[in-house]
């Protein structure tokens, strides 16, 4: 009887040990969690032509030292830049590592809505060796932007700290992403980018108020203002890199050029009528062209909104 009890007890220990081993194996399949946070101190520079920006921020890691060592946590890299960093504080006992980071980061900006665009500046990092099956980052909810951050010429929008997975072939790595959105002030952008060309175009349209007999002055006014509009267009696009798509500024200038073409074409046709001694026909055509002008302007505005 005692032998049976001992055998039963041994079997129970055997199955219990198997259960513990399986639980431990399942738990070992779970990736190690490391919490990452950022405190943005300053946005020092934005270079639109080079699609780069310079940031100054604190970066910290919180981890369980029984699951991962401090030296392993330090083996991370920035995906979109090579900034300088120095260690502020580290403690393997408390599972904490902190850096002060300052340097340039790179991202392809979207200028399709220039000069009323918004840009998202990001800080992206991954572990050098441990993929997502071994290490997974978590965004620290205490990440924030310092209240003193002020970027000249830009308004600060929202910020976000998140974690995604990025695949390199068959392997996926956990990627921490901290992003902040900067947008241009609407009123300032309108005064600097839209108002000047609107004034130039309005001056060119004063040609319709000039008598058809003075066609030379009409054409001279149209050509002069067209040259001014072209120079403004080039100056407007000088601050951004060349792109293979049209920006909002390009589409706006195409509409302006269409108005200039209509104005100059009208003036040239009136000149031909005056040369042919058809002064009355020239005056009638000028009035008719002036009535059609608002329709063309409204159609161009609608086309801008649709596109």
Overview of this protein structure:
The protein has 307 residues and is of the alpha+beta class. It has three domains: 1-30; 31-183, Acetylcholine Binding Protein, Chain: A; 187-306, Neurotransmitter-gated ion-channel transmembrane domain (Methane Monooxygenase Hydroxylase, Chain G, domain 1). The chain has helices at 2-29, 70-73, 186-205, 215-237, 248-275, 279-306, and strands at 32-47, 52-63, 76-78, 84-91, 96-106, 118-127, 135-139, 144-145, 155-168, 171-183. Helix 3 packs antiparallel against helix 4, helix 3 runs parallel beside helix 5 (248-275) and helix 5 (248-275) runs antiparallel to helix 6. The longest helix has 28 residues, at 2-29. The radius of gyration is 33 Å and the shape is rod-shaped.
Instruction: Report the major sheet.
Output: 6 strands, mixed
- Care to count the β-strands? 10
Bulk shape: rod-shaped
CATH class of the largest domain reads: Mainly Beta
**Topology pattern, helix = H, strand = E:** HEEHEEEEEEEEHHHH
> SS-based structural class?
alpha+beta
Radius of gyration from CA coordinates: 33 Å
* Helix percentage range: 40-55%
**Separation of the first and last Cα atoms:** 90 Å
How many domain modules? 3
Number of helix segments?
Answer: 6
Mean pLDDT: 88
Low-confidence stretches: 21-28
CATH-derived topology of the largest domain:
Acetylcholine Binding Protein, Chain: A
Please name the fourth-level CATH homologous superfamily of the largest domain. Neurotransmitter-gated ion-channel ligand-binding domain
What fraction strand? Answer: 25-35%
């Amino acid at each position: 009887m005692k032998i049976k009890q001992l055998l039963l007890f041994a079997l129970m220990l055997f199955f219990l040990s198997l259960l513990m081993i399986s639980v431990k194996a399942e738990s070992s399949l779970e990736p190690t969690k490391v919490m990452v946070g950022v405190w943005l101190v300053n946005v020092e520079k934005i270079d639109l032509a080079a699609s780069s920006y310079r940031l100054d921020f604190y970066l910290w890691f919180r981890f369980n030292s029984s699951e991962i060592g401090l030296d392993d946590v330090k083996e991370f890299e920035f995906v979109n830049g090579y900034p300088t960093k120095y260690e502020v504080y580290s403690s393997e006992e408390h599972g904490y590592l902190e850096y002060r980071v300052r340097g340039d980061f790179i991202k392809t900006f979207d200028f399709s809505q220039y000069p009323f665009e918004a840009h998202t500046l990001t800080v992206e990092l991954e572990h050098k060796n441990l993929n997502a099956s071994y290490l997974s980052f978590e965004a620290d909810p205490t990440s924030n932007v310092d209240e003193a951050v002020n970027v000249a010429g830009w308004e600060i929008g929202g910020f976000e700290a998140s974690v995604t997975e990025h695949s390199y072939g068959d392997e996926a790595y956990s990627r921490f992403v901290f992003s902040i959105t900067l947008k241009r002030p609407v009123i300032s952008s309108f005064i600097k980018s839209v108002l000047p060309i609107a004034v130039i175009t309005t001056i060119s349209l004063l040609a319709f108020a000039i008598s058809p007999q003075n066609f030379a002055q009409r054409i001279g006014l149209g050509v002069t203002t067209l040259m001014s509009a072209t120079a403004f267009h080039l100056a407007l696009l000088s601050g951004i890199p060349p792109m293979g798509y049209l920006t909002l500024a390009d589409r706006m200038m195409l509409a302006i050029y269409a108005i200039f073409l209509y104005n100059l074409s009208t003036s040239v046709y009136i000149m031909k009528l005056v040369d042919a001694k058809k002064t009355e026909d020239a005056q009638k055509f000028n009035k008719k062209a002036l009535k059609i002008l608002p329709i063309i302007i409204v159609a161009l505005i609608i086309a801008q909104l649709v596109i």
